[in-house]
Recover the amino acids of this structure.
């Protein structure tokens, strides 16, 4: 009986782990180190208990691979005055930013509120006011051709068509305050 319960629990745990990364999802963070990323800038990136954290700005973790059409997701935790975000289709990986790629912003108190949390900075204003500070938020970017959609916790926060940047790496940003990331994954779309 105990053996059956143990095996059943192992099977259920494996199925749950598979569902997290299944259906074409690829994990970009192994929960242990930053080996899958190129590090740029001055952020003090650390891995603690399976979470990436930075408390010092400005820096980026940039994938070594480039992507065209994809879904990119991560759980993000910030303080209300922090500045983080998911950048994508970066054309200058050695110096990422909104000048050479797109960003789904996580920045509740941004001075220019048209680029606050949930926006695709300089491309799409937020469709709703979503405050991310102080809680884990699942951020998802879907980019297919020029069409981009950003969601936070399943709520559509931005949508736009823009063909300026077609392909490039994706990135995690630390631009002020405490920023944490976990469950960072990507799925290429056909």
């Amino acid at each position: 009986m105990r053996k059956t319960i143990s095996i059943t629990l192992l099977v259920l745990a494996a199925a749950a782990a598979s569902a997290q990364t299944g259906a074409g999802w690829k994990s970009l963070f192994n929960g242990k180190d930053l080996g899958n990323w190129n590090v740029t800038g001055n952020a003090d990136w650390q891995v603690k208990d399976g979470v990436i954290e930075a408390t010092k700005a400005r820096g980026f973790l940039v994938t070594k691979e480039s992507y065209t059409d994809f879904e990119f997701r991560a759980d993000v935790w910030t303080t209300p005055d922090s500045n983080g975000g998911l950048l994508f289709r970066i054309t200058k990986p050695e110096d990422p930013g909104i000048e050479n790629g797109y960003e789904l912003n996580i920045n509740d108190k941004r001075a220019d509120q048209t680029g606050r949390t949930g926006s695709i900075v300089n491309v799409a204003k937020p469709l709703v006011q979503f405050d991310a500070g102080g809680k884990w938020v699942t951020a998802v970017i879907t980019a297919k051709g020029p069409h981009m959609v950003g969601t936070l916790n399943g709520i559509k926060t931005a949508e736009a068509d823009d063909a300026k940047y077609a392909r490039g790496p994706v990135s995690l940003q630390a631009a002020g305050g405490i920023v944490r990331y976990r469950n960072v994954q990507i799925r290429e779309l056909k």
